[in-house]
Amino acid sequence: MTTDPMPAPAWPARKPRLLLVDDQPVHLQVLYRTLAADHQLFMATSGEQALRVAREQLPDLILLDVVMPGQDGFAVLQQLRADRETAGIPVMFVTAHSGEDIETRCLEAGAVDFVPKPINPSVVRARVRTHLTLKFQSDLLRSLAFVDGLTGVANRRQFDERLATEWARAQRLGSALSLILVDVDHFKAYNDHYGHQAGDEALRRVAAALREQARRGTDLVARYGGEEFACLLPDTDLADARHLAEHMLEAVRLLAIPHRTGGASGVLSASFGVATRAGPAQPGWQPAALLGAADAQLYEAKRRGRAQVCAAALGDTAQD
Ligand SMILES: Nc1nc2c(ncn2[C@@H]2O[C@H](COP(=O)(O)OP(=O)(O)OP(=O)(O)O)[C@@H](O)[C@H]2O)c(=O)[nH]1
């Protein structure tokens, strides 16, 4: 009896999710028996169903039959690659047609591997394991590339990408998109008085407090740079964004981080600039305009004495 090696560190705590695709139920049953113990399995008996399940479940790996009525495996793979959501899911072909030509064609089409039928269960398990390990390692690297190392919130790169996609979505649907820029007050004085390490710890706590408030799945809290954070709020109008910023202001105050050189309250505070794009697109509107508007509101909040929220709609010069 062989024992499986320990999972690599990149493996998630949950069971890996596999999609098995074959038009013949008997072949699906064999794969099911081979893989059921260690994986969460989804099954499809046609190309069309496979695409639907792949989009709904976003499996970690797909085992795909080549020859199927309707859309064959090559057509399915092409469509998976064309969809941003499913493009990164690795696909292993499983087929009764063997030979160098078909194997080469499968790999050239973008499959990560090729397994002949009838399958050898232990070989399939080993290959599945190898491709899952590679998939989880690349997921981990990707997530690290988008996370701020100090605070654990999204980094500037992730923010820039999300701003571009959410802006395009808001343009298309005519939905609201709000942005809150947050800047910690008198932070230079904080570092000077308490030291850089205490400054880092304060930034971590502020980031966690902001994230605690932005609870919707589509909200994004990011470290924009230095002691500045940005919160992107899709489908959120100006009144709601302002309301959220007021809660964030209070949450930072409630951290009660002593700051004896930072203003009258004696605790660390932050200033908030809110801007919203609402309604149909106006000529010349760009994501940079939203950033500029939020930054102008942040500047105003600082000018008015810090530890407060200023907000305005994009294209609206009035402030409140
Ligand atoms: N500890 C720590 N400090 C940082 C980090 N990033 C930026 N800072 C510091 O944040 C301070 C920001 O200073 P300023 O831009 O002058 O702003 P401020 O002192 O907060 O003043 P106001 O924004 O006007 O209230 C600088 O001293 C930076 O060194 C970081 O990652 N860790």
Automatic annotation (TrEMBL):
Chain positions with 4-aspartylphosphate modification: 65
Top-level taxon in the UniProt lineage: Bacteria
Record-linked PROSITE patterns: GGDEF (PS50887), RESPONSE_REGULATORY (PS50110)
One Pfam family linked to the record: GGDEF
GO annotations of cellular component type: plasma membrane
Domain GGDEF per the UniProt entry, residue ranges: 175-314
Response regulatory domain span: 17-132
InterPro entries in UniProt: CheY-like_superfamily, Diguanylate_Cyclase, GGDEF_dom, Nucleotide_cyclase, Rev_trsase/Diguanyl_cyclase, Sig_transdc_resp-reg_receiver
GO MF entries: diguanylate cyclase activity
Recorded catalytic activity of this chain's protein: 2 GTP = 3',3'-c-di-GMP + 2 diphosphate
UniProt EC number: 2.7.7.65
An individual GO BP term: cell adhesion involved in single-species biofilm formation
Keywords: Phosphoprotein
Enzyme class: transferase
CDD domains with a match to the protein in the record: GGDEF (cd01949)
Record protein name field: diguanylate cyclase
Protein source organism: Tepidimonas thermarum
Taxon lineage: Bacteria, Pseudomonadati, Pseudomonadota, Betaproteobacteria, Burkholderiales
Gene, per the UniProt record: pleD_4
